[in-house]
């Protein structure tokens, strides 16, 4: 496989005093604010809890300190190796906003690697989804075999572990899942400080859901304790990404502050956190010509993010000086000018072509905007069974020419049992659009299988494009150095490229839908017409009628016999 | 049923039917026409009501304030349009971007099969500009469309201005759940066709277009705006789309409800609603309104830019601003508020509009006739008792033999060839009319060729008989007529299911022909009646009638010119947008009529 995830080795700093008491526990929190080219503001929270423990050994872990117990129990009970779950409301606009730190598809996404000791993976998966459904107050219990797939290449473990047998992997999305406060509250409760202190006080739902994009995620994986990787520890990353719209406030004043975004200011770091920082991306603004940040900070930091070297102003919340004399921090960004659309190197789009309710065609477009480098991408498509893919119509073309995928993994669907899974490895030529098309037929469902709002349409989850994209600057592969959290999620092996995952839009497809108010009328009418009208008419038309003499009476018959014996013609 | 299974009574019934065949036919025909005329009578129709719950109960408050600014934008647009001499693409892109939309353009080109003289175009090249307002926290699965055509001259500048004004206002609102696409299309329907084909990546008409860069998922509803004056007296709603398709009635209801709420006069077919339904003039007013709808629907043309959306199962309508000499005027802010209200309600939709009727006629904007009420019309008119009569006549001559049915088959079997030949020849003539003879590059030449072939088809009976050996028998024409009558019934029945109006108009003229034609009626008079009731003459009369209904009567010469242009438009509609009326007439209806012509001249 062209894309394989190397071992992750993420090292964290541990303050001396904590190491003495609880060598195995560490909590870090971080907020990155990036003013986007479109004028919108991207705020990304990351909370990381590290715990040096082993859930899998025989002894039950019972003493939890920073790590949430509910998740710890899930890991040990279901023998989870890695768990990634995200809830997203909205679609990340790559063309306006560039790449996010952590991509996620609209709706809910869950993918889990199980330990190879698990025997009944499907059963465990089923139980796990139901438990998670309870933990996150989400409809994850709707994940069943009809929307679960086992990708062979697209989702490799992000933590340590050399398991590549994808029979221990399960991946499912619920594109229709609507994310709201009820999902945010349990998510916040997993934090050591809750929403009482630290960065989490900013997470007020009335503001977070008043935005253009909202995404929250939980990632659990085993990571190395140090660069030698002698011991492993469990990492829990909780991330929350939100994009605030420039236009929505409406006053025309292009100005942002923590208070405006979150209706709160910061007064302290979470006391349990070993590090608590705010980063503001000022790469595009070295001289302060585009926007102005106040209060200013002398601390600068550089990090490799998504193939680019970015510069950040850093505010360390553990330092009292950050909060100034008013004892609260309210960052303010004032815009001065705006810029044009940017062109992300990799970008994907998807839509349904055609009209009518019989057939259709799914088009997936993949843009490589790199001027001279081509690179391979892995495309993963999971399509529900009620769209019957005609796989022989699959075409992949870039620049008008046929582009043969070097690897195709296709698992046909089974009606009402499992979805289609299509994975392929495609080389994207430089500066090109690659179009993948496949035709499908819309199935007629059984009448109980329709959702309560069948005319709304049926969702098809986002396709996933994973790739190692050539980077502009040499990536930092020295993982022993301390990095900000946001730059250290996807492990990086090569200096010349970085890992990117892009999700396309989900699709809304109309299926042939009966008029549900009609069955009674239709049944009555057809029964009447068939039974009375058609039946008797058919009967009349196919039968020929003749006048039949009524059978003669007994006396007449006897008379006839006598007449016959006499040789006289009968009566 | 016992009545029919008793042979004696059955025979009596059949003889009664055959004896009363002519009166029954006449009565049914009259009943059909009377029923149709009754449809426009208000007590017989239903009031419109909102079926869709998502749009019914929620109250929205309209606050669009910027009508004056929209007009200023419109004037700016007009200035740029004049400067560029066409669509000011760059200016539109810049303006839409400044309003915070994602802006994309689409180029298209189309060579018409022959020059369109009405609109003076042959080689069409243009650009569509559209901006997408992305709804916050929406996954790009649903969209609404608001479009305004960029027409040459001074028309429609206000529509574009209002569109841009609404875009700016909508952008600052937080309640959107569906993306809203603001589209300015060039070359009206051709541009719209290119955009829709690009959006759905289909190519039904062989147009060249550049692929679209941005999409908003499946489009739920669309409105097209036509506005050419700063103030208006009324808004007209246009519903008739391609091939007589209509949007869901709820869209019309929504428009009507908001006109009532905001206090704008609203019309349909350009006719205001009247309250005096019990007076003769009130009744004739609603008959006129309904007849206009029937004529427009029967033409199968899209009567506004919305007409092409319907193919893609997108509910769409055109709203036209009309400025007449009335006292009471509404300004642009009011229209903006009306559109705002409509879009907010459409935004609330959870499912596509599907609750209300798709097949209806409207004698006024507040009343409608559903399919259940108007279908009996066609049933009555098509009740072809004469087919039964013919069948009986064919079956009865050898009544002496044991089983009549088998014998009839033997009798008519030599007639198969004699029936088949006219059938095939008629259809070949139809194909000849339908095949587009386009080496000629003049509109008139094309139309006149079509008419010439059509007329030449009238000489066919003689040729048909030359092909047939021997004389046509009495049985022969009866079999042929039986086939022709059944053919007509099936054809018109199917047409009426898809496009009731077209089926109705054709039935109105063709059914009398079918009923009375035999070889034994006076030749010259019948031939004259037959020609008068042929599809082409029906079209000619329809042209005059339509002008009459629109209160714009024309002289015979003008009418004739109009007739020619209607034919050329029909051919163009077919090749540009895929309208089916012209091929239907040429390939099926005309050959069917030729069969009757054949019967008349049966030797």
UniProtKB/TrEMBL annotation, chain A:
One of its GO terms (cellular component) is GPI-anchor transamidase complex. It comes from the Eukaryota. GO terms for biological process: attachment of GPI anchor to protein. This is Phosphatidylinositol glycan anchor biosynthesis class T. The gene is pigt.
Automatic annotation (TrEMBL), chain B:
One of its GO terms (cellular component) is GPI-anchor transamidase complex. Pathway: Glycolipid biosynthesis; glycosylphosphatidylinositol-anchor biosynthesis. The chain crosses the membrane at residues 20-41, 371-392, 485-518, 524-546, 553-572, 584-602. It is a multi-pass membrane protein. One of its GO terms (biological process) is attachment of GPI anchor to protein. It is found in: Endoplasmic reticulum membrane. Keywords: Disulfide bond, Endoplasmic reticulum, Glycoprotein, GPI-anchor biosynthesis, Membrane, Transmembrane, Transmembrane helix. It comes from the Eukaryota. InterPro entries: Gaa1. Component of the glycosylphosphatidylinositol-anchor (GPI-anchor) transamidase (GPI-T) complex that catalyzes the formation of the linkage between a proprotein and a GPI-anchor and participates in GPI anchored protein biosynthesis. Binds GPI-anchor. Heteropentamer. Part of the GPI-anchor transamidase complex, consisting of PIGK, PIGT, PIGS, PIGU and GAA1. Interacts with PIGK. This is GPI-anchor transamidase component GPAA1. It comes from Sander lucioperca (Pike-perch). The lineage of its organism: Eukaryota, Metazoa, Chordata, Craniata, Vertebrata.
């Amino acid at each position: 496989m062209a894309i394989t995830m190397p071992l992750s080795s993420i090292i964290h700093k541990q303050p001396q005093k904590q190491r003495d008491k609880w060598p195995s526990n560490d909590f870090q929190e971080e907020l990155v604010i990036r003013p986007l080219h479109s004028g919108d503001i991207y705020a990304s929270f990351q909370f990381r809890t590290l715990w040096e423990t082993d859930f899998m050994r025989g002894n039950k872990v019972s003493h939890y300190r920073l790590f949430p117990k509910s998740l710890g129990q899930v890991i040990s009970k279901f023998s989870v190796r890695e768990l990634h779950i995200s809830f997203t409301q909205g679609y990340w606009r790559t063309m306006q906003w560039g790449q996010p730190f952590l991509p996620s598809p609209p709706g809910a996404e869950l993918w889990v690697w199980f330990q190879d000791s698990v025997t009944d993976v499907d059963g465990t998966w089923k139980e796990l989804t139901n438990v998670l459904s309870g933990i996150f107050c989400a409809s994850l219990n709707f994940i069943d075999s009809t929307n679960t797939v086992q990708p062979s290449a697209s989702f490799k473990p992000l933590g340590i572990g050399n398991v590549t047998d994808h029979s221990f992997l399960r991946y499912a999305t619920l594109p229709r899942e609507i994310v709201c406060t009820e999902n945010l509250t349990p998510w916040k409760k997993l934090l050591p400080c809750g929403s009482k202190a630290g960065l989490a006080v900013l997470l007020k739902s009335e503001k977070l859901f008043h935005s253009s994009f909202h995404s929250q995620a939980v990632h659990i994986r085993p990571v190395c304790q140090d660069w030698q990787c002698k011991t492993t520890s469990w990492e829990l990353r909780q991330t929350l990404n939100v994009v605030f719209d420039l236009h929505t406030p409406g006053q025309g004043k292009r100005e942002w502050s923590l208070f405006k975004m979150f209706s709160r200011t910061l007064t302290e770091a979470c006391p349990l956190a070993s590090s608590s920082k705010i980063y503001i991306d000022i790469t595009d603004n070295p001289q302060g010509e585009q926007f102005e940040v106040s209060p200013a900070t002398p601390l600068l930091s550089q990090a490799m993010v998504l193939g680019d070297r970015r510069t950040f102003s850093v505010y360390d919340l553990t330092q009292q000086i950050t909060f100034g004399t008013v004892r609260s921090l309210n960052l303010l960004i004032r815009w001065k000018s705006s810029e044009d659309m940017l062109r992300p190197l990799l970008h994907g789009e998807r839509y349904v072509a055609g009209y009518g309710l019989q057939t259709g065609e799914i088009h997936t477009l993949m843009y490589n905007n790199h001027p001279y480098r081509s690179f391979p991408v892995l495309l993963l498509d999971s399509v529900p069974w009620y769209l019957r893919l005609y796989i022989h119509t699959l075409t992949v073309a870039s620049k008008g020419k046929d582009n043969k995928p070097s690897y195709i993994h296709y698992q046909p669907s089974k009606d009402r049992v499992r979805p289609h899974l299509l994975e392929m490895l495609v080389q994207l030529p430089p500066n090109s659009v690659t179009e993948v098309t496949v035709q499908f037929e819309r199935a007629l469902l059984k009448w109980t299988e329709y959702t309560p709002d069948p005319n709304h349409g049926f969702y098809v989850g986002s396709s996933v494009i994973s790739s190692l994209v050539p980077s502009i600057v040499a990536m930092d592969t020295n993982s022993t150095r301390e990095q900000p959290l946001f730059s250290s999620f996807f492990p990086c092996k090569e200096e010349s490229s970085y890992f990117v995952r892009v999700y396309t839009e989900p699709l809304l497809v109309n299926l042939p839908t009966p008029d549900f108010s009609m069955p009674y009328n239709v049944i009555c009418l057809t029964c009447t017409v068939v039974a009375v009208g058609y039946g008797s008419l058919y009967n009349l038309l196919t039968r020929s009628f003749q006048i039949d003499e009524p059978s003669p009476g007994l006396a007449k018959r006897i008379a006839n016999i006598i007449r016959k014996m006499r040789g006289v013609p009968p009566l | 049923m016992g009545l029919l299974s008793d042979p004696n009574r059955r025979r009596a019934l059949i003889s009664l039917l055959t004896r009363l065949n002519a009166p029954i036919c006449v009565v049914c025909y009259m009943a059909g026409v009377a029923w149709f005329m009754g449809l426009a009578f208000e007590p017989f129709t239903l009031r419109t009501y909102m079926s869709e719950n998502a749009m019914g109960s929620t109250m929205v408050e309209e606050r669009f304030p910027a009508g004056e600014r929209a007009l200023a934008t419109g004037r700016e647009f007009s200035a740029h349009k004049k400067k560029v001499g066409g669509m000011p693409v760059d200016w539109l892109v810049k303006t839409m971007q400044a309003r915070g939309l994602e802006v994309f353009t689409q180029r298209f080109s189309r060579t018409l099969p022959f020059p369109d003289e009405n609109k003076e175009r042959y080689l069409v090249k243009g650009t569509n500009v559209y901006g997408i307002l992305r709804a916050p926290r929406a996954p790009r699965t649903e969209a609404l469309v608001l479009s305004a055509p960029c027409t040459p001259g001074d028309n429609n500048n206000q529509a574009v201005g209002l569109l841009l004004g609404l875009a700016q206002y909508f952008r600052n609102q937080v309640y959107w759940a569906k993306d809203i696409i603001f589209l300015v299309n060039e070359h009206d329907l051709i541009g719209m066709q290119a955009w829709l084909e690009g959006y759905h990546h289909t190519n039904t008409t062989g147009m060249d277009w550049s692929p679209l860069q941005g999409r908003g998922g499946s489009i739920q509803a669309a409105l097209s705006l036509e506005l050419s004056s700063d103030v208006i007296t009324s808004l007209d709603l246009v519903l008739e789309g391609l091939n007589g398709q209509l949007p869901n009635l709820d869209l019309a209801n929504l428009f009507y409800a908001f006109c009532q709420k905001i206090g704008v006069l609203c019309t349909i077919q350009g006719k205001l609603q009247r309250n005096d339904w019990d007076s003769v003039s009130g009744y004739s007013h609603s008959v006129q309104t309904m007849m206009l709808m029937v004529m427009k629907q029967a033409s199968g043309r899209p009567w506004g830019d919305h007409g092409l959306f319907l193919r893609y199962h997108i509910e769409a309508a055109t709203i036209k601003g009309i400025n007449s000499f009335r006292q009471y005027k509404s300004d642009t802010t009011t229209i903006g508020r009306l559109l705002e209200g409509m879009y907010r309600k459409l935004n609330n939709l959870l499912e596509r509009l599907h609750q209300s009727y798709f097949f209806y006629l409207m004698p006024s904007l507040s009343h409608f006739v559903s399919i259940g009420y108007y279908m009996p019309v066609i049933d009555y008119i098509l009740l072809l008792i004469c087919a039964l009569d013919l069948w009986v006549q064919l079956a009865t001559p050898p009544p002496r033999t044991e089983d009549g049915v088998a014998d009839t088959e033997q009798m008519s079997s030599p007639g198969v060839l004699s029936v088949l030949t006219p059938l095939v020849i008629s259809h070949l003539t139809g194909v000849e009319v339908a095949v587009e003879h386009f080496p000629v590059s003049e509109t008139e030449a094309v139309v006149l060729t079509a008419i010439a072939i059509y007329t030449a088809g009238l000489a066919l009976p003689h040729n048909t008989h030359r092909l047939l050996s021997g004389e046509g028998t009495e049985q022969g024409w009866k079999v042929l007529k039986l086939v022709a009558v059944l053919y007509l019934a099936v054809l018109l029945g199917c047409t009426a299911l898809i496009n009731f109006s077209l089926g109705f108009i054709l039935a109105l003229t063709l059914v009398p022909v079918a009923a009375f034609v035999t070889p034994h009626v006076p030749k010259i008079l019948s031939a004259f009646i037959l020609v008068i009731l042929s599809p082409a003459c029906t079209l000619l009369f329809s042209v005059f009638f339509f002008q009459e209904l629109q209160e714009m009567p024309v002289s015979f010469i003008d009418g004739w010119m109009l007739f020619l242009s209607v034919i050329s438009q029909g051919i163009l509609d077919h090749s540009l947008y895929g309208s089916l009326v012209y091929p239907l007439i040429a390939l099926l209806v005309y050959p069917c009529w030729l069969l009757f012509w054949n019967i008349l001249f049966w030797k």
